[in-house]
Amino acid sequence: MSGRVEAALAERGLTLPQVVPPLAAYQPAVRSGVYVYTAGQLPMVDGKLPVTGKVGAEVTPEEAKDLARVCALNALAAVKSVAGDLDRVARVVKVVGFIASAPDFTGQPAVLNGASELLGEVLGEAGVHARSAVGVAVLPLDAPVEVELQVELLPEA
């Protein structure tokens, strides 16, 4: 373990997972200058989705909020894979969340709070961000939630 961000994760009983391997032709994260852009991260745990289906139908909003936390944790692992150290995160600039939703489900912002709250807990002020919570018909592998991050890094010393 290294640094204050991973210590904050450990205080919450969390560890940074291995980066989820790509499911298609893309990279989990890319760096451009001081910015890191992650691919959409599914709530994979040990290589599997713990739950599938639509939020508001097969998946409860509370379950989906927990899954959004898992997505954010996977996204942080992807950031670390190209930044080297999460303590280099100057701020999370934007979070985009996609929520596979039943036709009458309108609670997408509350679901995405799972990711936003985790980022705030472990990054403090650097975790405060702009975001979009988008309801969609279906996600890869029938995942209920997908989250991507745009992160600014501190300049290298």
TrEMBL record:
Q: Domain of life here?
A: Bacteria
Residues in Endoribonuclease L-PSP/chorismate mutase-like domain copies: 7-152
Query: Which InterPro entries does this UniProt record tie to the protein?
Result: Endoribo_LPSP/chorism_mut-like (IPR013813), RutC-like_sf (IPR035959)
CDD domains of this UniProt entry? YjgF_YER057c_UK114_like_1 (cd02199)
* One matching Pfam family: YjgF_endoribonc
The protein in question is named: LysR family transcriptional regulator
